[in-house]
Amino acid sequence: MRRPDADRLIFTNHHQAKCLEFDTVFICDAVEGVFPDLRPRDSLLGVRHRMDHLPSDPADYTAFRLQEERRLAYTAMTRARARVVWTATSVGSEAGRGVPSRFLPLVGGVATLHELATSPPERGRPVSPREAEAGLRRLASDPTAPAPRRLAAVAALAAGPRWRMRDPVRHAGIAGRGRATGLNGSELRLSPSEADGYARCPRRYAIERKLNQAGDSIYARFGSVVHEVLDQVESEAMAQGKRHADYPTAVQRLDKIMDPGDFGGEPFAAAWRARAREGLARLYNMWPSTATPVAIEQRVSFDLGDVTWRGRIDRIERDAAGVRIVDYKTSKTPVQLTEAAESLQLGFYALAAGADAELGKHGEPVAAEFWYPLVAAQKSLTTRALDMHNLPALGRRLIELGEAIAAESWDPAPGDWCERCPFASSCPARPEGGDQFA
Ligand code: SF4
Question: Which atom belonging to ligand 1 lies closest to the Cα atom of 201?
Fold first, then answer.
């Protein structure tokens, strides 16, 4: 029989938690619509309108509901003796993407959600053995820390394996940071996807692209297969004078090209094949263009500043207005409209196509778009377009990025992308990273 004071998890709702106390309280699924939930607590008969203490005006009533939810949040948080953890997830939300609760910046003590996502938490209590180990190593090697604390840290490290930390006899720490230059090699050639990677985080870009630590991803393999299918069938269709290929031809080619071994064998490969078929069906059922193709998988290069940029454009079309550029995306989540409007990748393609003498015969670039065949759609294929007015600014931005890469400036740039960064445990901008052993 379990002792009444033994550790356990208790699942409860906010109301039932009143008068209880716990060491740690997890407030889960803090997304808009769940917490706060501002739906009117109303019956079909509209009893609310007969209660004098409740505001009748809809806006006032929503404000009242928000106050109620805030009170609940306060109650839930004050149930914790030591720690409160809020979680928010997009999984299971009706729209497919949960919007984080407006309470999160409040409890995080910051002004905006963006600030909350981009500023790494201050070093506090560790939440994993690896983080605990890093903290202890920092303390042990900190000459400004009191000697008893440093000694205690060494003792805790020595007992580390008991707490799932690494054995200090076998893992003596990591070397201090070395030079971060000399990664570029003799000739600097860049691609627009590198510009995107560098613009997001120079440090991660350097590790992935310069030190070749990106690793293999099944999503990248899937994207390559779909691009290869479209390259082959669209090249053939263009040679036959057609505007585009068709679904049966594309699926036939998919089955020929796709190697199940690259996708973990069957039945996993069958799931990826079904996913590709679904995207191809959507693409050919909802083909989003009436223009004529002039080039498929076209290599382009363009000098910007002192750097030569190179890339490959998936599809180039022309119509009466001019040249249209298309880049297929195999993600299931499209970028925001504003992000596409300022896309470095589309901007580079448009600039390079405009400077290409051969493509110039078909006219000036007038549009550049991402196409998303994998995104569920009812009536028309999901696309995202570049704002062509942004081209001059994007050209300047590419020059800036080229100069920064040439100067080998690899400082970390923390943001919400850090959550999925495989190099966070060695990143000085993150609490779990930094100099683990000075
Ligand atoms: S953790 Fe964030 S800041 Fe550090 S390298 Fe990764 S993406 Fe960049």
Answer: 8
Strand blocks (E) in 305-364: 307-319, 322-328
Same domain, residue pair 359 and 246: yes
Q: Could you read off the pLDDT of 50-91 as tens digits, one per residue? A: 666 777 777 888 888 888 899 999 999 999 988 898 988 766
Q: What per-residue confidence (pLDDT) applies to 263?
A: 83
List the residue whose alpha carbon is closest to atom 3 of ligand 1: 414
Specify if 327 maps to a domain: yes
Q: Which of 45, 81, 35, 40 is nearest to 57 (CA)?
A: 40
Q: What is the pLDDT of residues 108-138, one digit of tens each?
A: 888 777 777 666 656 567 777 888 888 888 8
What is the DSSP track for 376-437?
Answer: --SSS-EEEE--GGGHHHHHHHHHHHHHHHHTT------SGGGGG-TTGGG-TTSTT-S-S-
Atom of ligand 1 nearest to the CA of 412: 3
Q: State in Å: Cα 194 to ligand 1 middle.
A: 16
How far is the centre of ligand 1, averaged over its atoms, from the C-alpha of 206 (Å)?
11
CA 296 – ligand 1 centroid, Å:
35
Question: Which of 421, 425, 426, 432 most suits a substitution to test ligand 1, by most atoms within 8 Å of the C-beta?
Answer: 421
Ligand 1, CB cutoff 6 Å, lining residues: 201, 203-204, 412-414, 417-418, 421, 423-424, 427, 429-430
Cβ count near 227 (within 10 Å)? 17
Work out which ligand 1 atom sits closest to the CA atom of 207: 5
Domain extent for 360 = 218-398
Residue 427 structure tokens = 């990143």
Distance CA 312, CA 326 (A): 11
Question: Residue of the nearest CA to atom 7 in ligand 1?
Answer: 418
Residue 62 within a domain: yes
User: How many structural domains are present in the chain?
Assistant: 2
Rounded to the nearest whole angstrom, what is the distance from the C-alpha of residue 421 to the centroid of ligand 1? 6
Ligand 1 center to 129 CA (angstroms): 20
pTM for the predicted model, two decimal places: 0.63
Task: Supply the CATH number for residue 68's domain.
Answer: 3.30.160.800
Are 385 and 244 in a shared domain?
A: yes
**Same domain, residue pair 365 and 226:** yes
Q: Poorest-confidence range of 131-145, 229-243, 306-320?
A: 131-145
- Residues 364 and 231 grouped into a single domain: yes
Instruction: Indicate the pLDDT class of residue 358, thresholds 50, 70 and 90.
Output: confident
205 belongs to a structural domain = no
Q: Compute the C-alpha angle 40/46/50, nearest 5°.
A: 105
Kindly give the distance from the C-alpha atom of residue 428 to the centroid of ligand 1, in angstroms, as a whole number: 8
Query: Where do we find the tokens 């901008």?
Result: 429
